[in-house]
Hints:
Blueprint: E1 5-9, H1 16-30, E2 37-41, H2 44-54, E3 60-63, H3 80-85, E4 88-93, H4 96-101, H5 106-118, E5 122-127, H6 131-135, H7 139-150, H8 156-161, E6 163-166, H9 180-198, E7 206-210, H10 218-222, E8 229-232, H11 239-249
Parallel strand pairs: 1-2, 1-8, 2-3, 3-4, 4-5, 5-6, 6-7, 7-8
Helix pairs in contact: 1-2, 1-11, 7-9
Bound molecules: 1,3-dihydroxyacetonephosphate.
1,3-dihydroxyacetonephosphate is lined by residues 9, 95, 167, 172-173, 210-213, 231-235.
Amino acid sequence: xxxxxxxxxxxxxxxxxxxxxxxxxxxxxxxxxxxxxxxxxxxxxxxxxxxxxxxxxxxxxxxxxxxxxxxxxxxxxxxxxxxxxxxxxxxxxxxxxxxxxxxxxxxxxxxxxxxxxxxxxxxxxxxxxxxxxxxxxxxxxxxxxxxxxxxxxxxxxxxxxxxxxxxxxxxxxxxxxxxxxxxxxxxxxxxxxxxxxxxxxxxxxxxxxxxxxxxxxxxxxxxxxxxxxxxxxxxxxxxxxxxxxxxxxxxxxxxxxxxx
Length: 260
Ligand code: 13P
């Protein structure tokens, strides 16, 4: 059984003080939830301080982006090694905001996914179609094209640990989430594509849904057989709301916490 993974993508929100206040409020309640793995992805500046607060707990630390080189003359960038050093276990790669606002291409996403694994980080690979692509009937081809590019350098062993977040661009920050049924269909498509390319490794790949997830709609996604958790933006900024989503994801009898 796949343990669902609920990740908070704080985007460019929260100072170190605000991040600490969130962790203080949420951690006691997150610590007692079983059957779900929880990841917090603060901005770079709060990674180390949040990482310290999470030490000794099952809640994991994640970054929101990385560069693919280990070091070099890349002003403003942060390397996979640096993220691993401050305690990151996960890193979001290819978020649509990075693709759309910062020119991140499929080729860069491919390099970043490979570099994350090489540094011992697990990438949370974001894929998803725009509204125009959906309206043109291109949802499935866009998602599988992004998947094919991003996983081109991976082995089956990598894919077994990979997390894919299906985030339709039109659902992000709009309050218009996909339906549970459609999230399940596209997540199933993602797993089927991975299985066709990497075999049974895809059975343990976790596929999250992201896009306007709140406590009001989370159950609809989390009860779908192909959906293994959520990548939460806006609703993850509020401790009460985020803890509520994590509680809805908990699967009694799941292994809970992080895999070894
Ligand atoms: P919202 O939950 O704010 O729609 O953002 C989703 C997202 O982009 C998570 O990565």
